[in-house]
Design a protein that fits this description.
The termini are far apart. The longest helix is centred in the middle third of the chain and has 18 residues. The chain contains five helices and no strands. The protein is mainly alpha-helical. Helix 2 packs parallel to helix 4.
């Protein structure tokens, strides 16, 4: 079986802020036992906070994709996948919003 979640939001919600909220949740829930989740999760949260605060850097999106990709199927429990998959989905589906936020800070 497994688990899933549905979030209903309107188009006024910032996807960058929503991803930050999600990243904070998963970072808090990590037991820290395995490196990909502990370190990857910490770095993803740090980068998305940086983007949200208007200090995003060129290459941040690609770095987040790389980190999240490195977490998939490499953790002791499914939390790493549960963290990485939404990050990759947000970056795929709402990439333009992340790019605009970064561009505004450069």
């Amino acid at each position: 079986l497994g688990s899933g979640a549905i979030i209903v939001i309107d188009d006024s919600q910032s996807m960058v802020s929503l991803l930050r909220t999600l990243a904070e949740f998963y970072h808090h829930e990590s037991c820290g036992q395995c490196t990909p989740c502990r370190e990857g999760g910490r770095w993803l949260l740090k980068i998305v906070r940086r983007i949200e605060s208007g200090e995003g850097k060129e290459g941040d999106i690609e770095l987040m994709e790389d980190i999240a990709g490195g977490m998939l199927a490499k953790t002791l429990c499914p939390l790493g996948d549960a963290y990485a998959m939404p990050v990759l989905s947000f970056l795929k589906k709402f990439r333009k919003e992340f790019e605009e936020k970064i561009r505004a800070s450069i």
